[in-house]
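User: Please run a holo structure prediction.
Assistant: Happy to. Please share the sequence and the ligand.
User: Here you go; the ligand is adenosine-5'-diphosphate.
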Amino acid sequence: MASASDIMPEIRTENNVVHIAENAEPENATAKELREARDTAKKAQKKAEELAQLSLYDPSPLIRFDIDHRKLLYVNPAAFNRYSDIFQKGVDHPLLADITEIALRAFSQRRTVTREVAVGSITYQQSITPNLLGDERIVTLYNHDITRLKQTEEVLRQETERAEAASRAKSDFLANVSHELRTPMNGVLGMASLLRDSALDTEQRELVDVIVQSGESLMLLLNDVLDLSKIEANELTLEQIPFSLVAMMADVVRLFEPSARQKKLDFSFFYSAVAPECLVGDPARIRQIVTNLVGNALKFTEQGGVKIDISSRRRDDGKVDMIFRVEDTGIGIEEKNINRIFSKFTQADNSTTRKYGGTGLGLTICKLLTEAMDGALGVESRVGKGSCFWFSLPLSVADAEQTRRLSAENTDKANVLDGNDFSPYRILIVDDHPINLFFARKLLMKMGFKSIDTVEDGRMALEKSAAEKYDLIILDCQMPGMDGYDVSRAIRAREDGSGTRIPIVAMTANAMIGDREKCVAAGMDDYVSKPITMPRMLEVLMKWLKAGGGGALKPLAAATAVAASPAPVDLAHLRDYIGDDEEEKQIVVSMFMSGAEEVLALMEASMVTVDNESWKKAAHKLKGSAANFGARTLQVLCGQAEQDAEADAATKQDLIRRVALACEDVRRFMGS
Ligand code: ADP
């Protein structure tokens, strides 16, 4: 192999023009190498000539400099016109500052290096190109005037800084103001509540009601604004604590169940059997996001239902992606409005506020919160069909000790009732104040009651108690319109002669002398005074429910179908099939999984080609192997997919998603 010096032709530079000796052929160079070297050199010469031509007209200063002799070889007219002293100053001219050092760098790296130089008020971007042909170390300095660019950049930088400072100041201000507003609002609300419970005539009561309702709306808004400004001012601190997601979700479901029931909507909750139950993160913030999405779903749905679906996906970093989906069959969102709804104070369209209320801050906060937790949030929606809001969060799985502690805490809660199972009893709570209803409900939920209805006024209480069979009624005494005493009297009058007597427990505002007598006179059995405490409530309920015998046992309302899916794979079946050989099991699992992936790809492809027949075949194939494998859920899903071969694209997309999730569940379950 010939060395570089062997094959290079002789190159000379004269008057800034490179000359290449045509017949400087070393004897041992191969013809091909020689030809290539010559071509390269010729190209370089052409470039140099073009550059020399160009430099005559180029308005940017161009200089050629010999670093070994530290002398200027050439300056173009632009350089000379601007800097007539350049020959005189030589390396002392600002354009040539530190030129030797930089030129040597360009030579050693065999490439153009760039820097910025200032000459008076002008800033140049200077590129220093080494001439790599020949022995002389010559560099070409091309100077591009970037003064205006620099000025614009500086103005932009200052403007950005000013805007950021203003935005920070605004967020700080908002955070402070909303915080400061909450304190007096608490006072207003507290006093208004007390006022409401005092002796008032109907008109006064209505006025106080308006104060309380407006105050509560204002508090919600203030909380949202406070959250948003905290996030924007970077003051959000996220917790990292172990928590039970299952328990939290069960709580959320319970919270919304009454409104779902009131709207006669199906309300279901699925938690993948292979998803971890206990995780590490910020439960309050996660709950806030879920609550917001579920609240919206129920708000914007009039028919059909809302489904919450939680699953998980393994990540490479040891964490899991928890995937939350809230699907509704509500009004949906127009494509063009999808992006708007995540902006502050914006709703899908302007009629939303009139019809549904709201501030347009909820989703913005949800999105910012998920992003702050390194997650993502999105929505798929079709007008008139419904929406699916989803978010995913990377979370660590709680370790064994944390999980043990959390489940012990939950068991303790359950044991409070000394083994009493209140779940079969049906309770009606009547209170005109939603917050009171909420707390009373929560308390009963904690005790283990599962079937609790709530209504907000006396007349509805009468209707509801006539229509449904309850084991006990908890009744607020002071209510606008028909108060608790009236309701109790009406119920007793209705029962007269029927041989039944439903226990009625009064809730009174203050433990005032004479309260008890008043309650008993109105036909009530007992009373609890606010604030209601767990021991007192327990005492009263135990007494009256036992007496009532809990005869009216009813199954749980269908609305709370909390379904834990069965294990993804029937291991006993699999064992019958392949025995106990671990290695063989792994082979079968990996064969099964790659087959499943293939089928999923086929199903997807069949949607593109709108080929229902191949969809059907693919689903059928996976159904068969899932059955053999003992993957029951997957088998059922594939059976459904097979039947739904003619379904619309959305249904099929959903089926694919569910099949994929079921496959993922199988994979995780089998630990591969
Ligand atoms: P708001 O307090 O107004 O509900 P959000 O930020 O929570 O504020 O929601 C913004 C807007 O997004 C809503 O006003 C509504 O137009 C739309 N939206 C949110 N969730 C749904 C849903 N599940 N179905 C239809 N529209 C929705």
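The longest strand covers residues 386-397.
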